Amino acid sequence: MLELQQITKVYRTGGQEVSALKDINLAFRASEFVSVLGQSGSGKTTLLNIIGGLDQYTAGDLLINGRSTKAFKDRDWDAYRNHTIGFVFQSYNLISHQTALSNVEMALTLSGVSKTERRRRAMEVLRHVGLAEQAHKRPNQMSGGQMQRVAIARALVNNPDILLADEPTGALDSETSVQIMELLKDIAKDRLVIMVTHNPDLAARYSTRIIKVLDGRIVDDSDPYSQQGASGQVAFKKTKMRFWTALALSFNNLLTKKGRTFLTAFAGSIGIIGIALILSLSNGVQDYIDQVQEDTLVAYPLSLKKDDSNSLTSLFSARMEALEGGNDHSQSGDVGVNAALENMLRSETADNDLETFKNYLEKHRKEFEALTKDIHYSYDLSPQIYAADTADGITAVNPSDLAEKLDTNNVMVKTMAANMDVWSEISSDKAMLSSQYQMVAGHLPNSADEVILMVDENNNVNDLVLYSLGLKDAEELNHLSKETADDEQTYAYDDLLGQSFKLVIQSDLFQKENGLWTDKSSDQAYMSDLINKGEDITIVGIVKPQEGTADNASVGGIGYTQALTKHISEAVKDSQIAKEQLADKGTNVFTGQAFSADVTAFSSQNLTDEQRMALAGMTAEELAAYVSQYNQNADATYEDNAKTIGIIDLEDPSSIHFYARSFEDKENLKDLIDDYNRQMKKAGKEAQVISYTDDIALVMSSVTTMINMITYVLVGFVAISLVVSSIMIAIITYISVLERTKEIGILRAMGASKKDVRRIFTAETAIEGAVSGVMGIVITLLLNLPINSIIEQITDAANISVLPVWAGAVLIAVSILLTVLAGVIPSRFAAKKDPVEALHTE
Ligand code: ADP
Ligand code: MG
What we know:
By secondary structure, the chain is of the alpha/beta class. The chain folds into five domains: 2-237, Rossmann fold (3-Layer(aba) Sandwich); 251-292 and 702-839, no CATH class; 302-320 and 339-378 and 661-693, no CATH class; 380-475 and 491-561, no CATH class; 575-649, no CATH class. It is built from 31 helices and 23 strands. The two termini are 34 Å apart. Adenosine-5'-diphosphate binds next to β1, β2 and α1.
């Protein structure tokens, strides 16, 4: 059944050659108990290892059932060891972190036997060797004899044809040795047992054949056997460890060193925690920004302005160009000029042609309306509003004369007073208004002469508003002292509701005197009269911004509807001065002369007959006043005059505001406008192309870009710690390989292939990686709790740090991948180990 033909084994170590076996010829019967005797170093172990396929012969041939093994591949040897051979060693070679039962099961595990079958067969052989009771003990809880019996059980469990035992009683006392010998003798009844021993007595008592070895040669054979020809082919079932088995094996191993596994996983998880935290935060902040954009910024309209040169985009791009300008003069020996200011002025964009666009918009109104809550046209026309009471002098409410009245050098206050737009046009759409504002008292305007007062969310209104409205006397401001008690003043709703102002039609500020339209706004008597005759404009409601909208622009002021603008515009059109100017757009109504760049001041040559006649009877003083009045608008253009008089063209708004329904619609709206631009470009009407700015989106997108950048940089930094932890895991795996060298040898002796060994270590690193990944994610989720509560305390924003599920999954996968990669080299190293050497390590 087994035959050695001229087997030679030469070891080469450090240039030295040792012939451990020299030209061995031996044949064995299918069932006999052979003892191999010989001095130490005579080659007994080598012989056994070669028979068992654990070591390879240098020359000769080993015939198994008549089949040559010369062409055997690694896989064939593995299968041969697993199915045909059972090994028993002097030092037992049990896997220490596994129970007796698991140790015995191992060989079956390698041959892919099912779990229940494994258990049954393992218990059976344990019973056979008399250890059924000890099945769940670990090797270190057993005596030497018991351990050797476990080893024998393990060797037998696959029901091998050949049992090889290398000094199985070498470490046992004589009584136990006898028991083991009895057991082997029993086993040898139906299979071949080859035992190496030092003990000639035992050999003589129990074995059926004694072979003596000396210096690598057979010197005596008590019962030689010659092969009776080949008994046919044998094929071995290939061993293959299932991945799950490898996983379970590694899991068991890791469980025996829980502390270290935990620490390694924790160290490995630090990189994961770092990245997960950064992702949580940036994801949360991004979500928060998106939310704010959607919830709040929709309230900000997308505005098309006639003059877009002061929008953020234009300013940004102009500034960029200005900064980049300037040629390199460093080599030319002169000083160059970077024309930043000039370029900035030059880059001023041409006016948007909103008239054409409005026309287009009206034609495609349905498309635009589908995306908007409101489309609002605004015009360059501000209502002229005065305080109704003129008894103590005239108070201009809009535009406010507060800045002029203030007797202070405080630039801040002056600028604030001068630039405060207290009166603003609100939407005419009631639904839109109720989405923006919450009614505090009264009702929304129903007609041109009704306005609302806008307060902030705490029902406050800025005192600047009250002063500019004349509700508080501006004179008080000039007599403020530190001693003046600043009692908090409040107003009952009813004091404010019904409060009315006087509207003056802008064109009425001019009166024709001596053939010249004269600005009468500084004539007290004229103005008082005009104001007293003016229409009442009444506060009918108080509103505050709807919760969640951040449109502070119109908080604390007066809101009027477009009806008022239209009313004023019509009244202006009805006025004499407007009629005159509109009748002849080429002539400056203020001077009676044609609009021309050349005529910009009073000249006695350029006068109308009416003016010439009036001048004749004037005193020098009157003449001076006349000339000054004449010069006021002498260098104007038609557009300037229209603005001065208050003429507006309803078809030509100064800006168009789109209030989108949703954030998405805002984007679609931009597409619509871009569509229009494309059409204009196609038609060659470059001048009609609209440039527009979504200032808020611009700011937000730069914030988003910044957050992304910070995230990338931080993730980059933290990734380094991930690499470091991977290297650490590689080192720990390597140490584990060194520690388990013997186990590798045992597994190989039982028929585990190199691939199986690699698999075990890969499984181990995969488990380690999964544990550290999961640990990292769990720790991150826990850390997010305090982080969120801190952020909430500081900023009021809840749940900012949220790890996206996908990120958690990806990070665990990355952790597994990295540790497996880290384990590749150590596990290859493990697989390459020579099984014989591996067995000898302690
Ligand atoms: P035995 O088991 O009879 O004591 P061995 O078979 O272990 O003897 O050793 C036979 C000879 O081969 C010895 O001289 C030993 O030094 C040598 N030898 C065994 N294994 C190796 C090895 N892996 N490398 C080099 N020499 C070895
Ligand atoms: Mg030996």
